[in-house]
Amino acid sequence: MKKIIIANLKMNFTQEDTKNYLDELITLSESITNKLVVCFPYTSLALAKDMLLNTKIIIGAQNVHQNESGAFTGEISAKMLKDLSCKIVLVGHSERRMYFEESYKLINEKIKTLLKYGMRAVLCIGETLKERETSKTKQVLKQQLDQALNGLYENELKNVLIAYEPVWAIGTGKTPTGKQIEECAKYIRNVISQNFSEKAAKNMNILYGGSLKPDNAKTLLSLSEINGALVGGASLNPDSFIKIAKVK
Ligand code: PGA
Predict the structure, then answer these.
(1) DSSP secondary structure string, 18-73?
(2) Collapsing DSSP states into helix, strand and coil, what is residue 123?
(3) Which of 15, 87, 180, 244 has the most CB atoms around it within 10 Å of its CB?
């Protein structure tokens, strides 16, 4: 099965950096059979649209506003992203929840807007260290899923991917054990099965994210419940991103 490997470039790269990055990535990606997505900062999207035409790299963004248009100074709409050939958008990344106080109610609205415009949403969920240490992981994952997917129709779930990203693993160099990841991914499928159906749970793409590097990619991506990866730091270097993307 093909894996979905997503780069999250976060707040990095000028136009020139983006050009150099993509020049290298396009060449390196030719032999890759997995699906490759790069979530660019907004300011790189127009350049990415030009450079990635006729390549297999899919264009993604890191955020979107929940409203369709209007007086929301500084914000970017789903329609604007679609216009830049953006196919997929991250929602609910822990950095947005932490630094911008995004709630799962808001995240739910963002997902609905993206689906309305025919784009896919990568819903990020995951527990903090404190929540894990106090045995609240499952409770937190359930709450996040219940709120984020509230009111969605089952047939819309094919355009939603779930990234399980423990907050304590993001940018820290720490990763959960394979067993811990499998347990959470199974639990996520359980919740989806309860809220929607067994079929929806089985078909859901669940990605792992948090300190994924070329040297742990094989172990983490070969877990049976995991369908791909969301890569932050290691995706900034085309070479290390491709090493991760090569994992079968
Ligand atoms: P990281 O980030 O790979 O640098 O830990 C992952 C993410 O934020 O999605």
Answers:
(1) HHHHHHHHHHHGGG--SEEEEEE-GGGHHHHHHHTTTSSEEEEES---SSSSSS-T
(2) strand
(3) 244
The amino acid at residue 159 is N
Tens digits of per-residue pLDDT, 61-79?
Answer: 999 999 999 999 999 999 9
Counting ligand 1 atoms within 8 A of each CB, the residue from 123, 129, 170 with the most, and so the one to mutate, is 170
Cα(160)–Cα(58) distance, rounded to whole angstroms? 15
Handedness of CA 35, 59, 204, 5 (dihedral sign): positive
Residue whose CB lies within 8 A of the most ligand 1 atoms, among 5, 212, 235, for a mutation test:
212
CA–CA dist 101, 78 (Å, integer): 20
Compute the distance between CA of residue 138 and CA of residue 125 in angstroms, rounded to an integer. Answer: 11
4-11+35-245 CATH fold: TIM Barrel (3.20.20)
Each residue of 21-53: pLDDT tens digit? 999 999 999 999 999 999 999 999 999 999 999
Task: For residue 229, list its beta bridge partners.
Answer: 5, 208
Q: List beta partners, residue 231.
A: 7
Report the separation in Å between the CA atom of 181 and the middle of ligand 1, taken as the mean of its atom positions.
Answer: 15
CA-to-CA distance for 173 and 198, rounded, in angstroms? Answer: 34
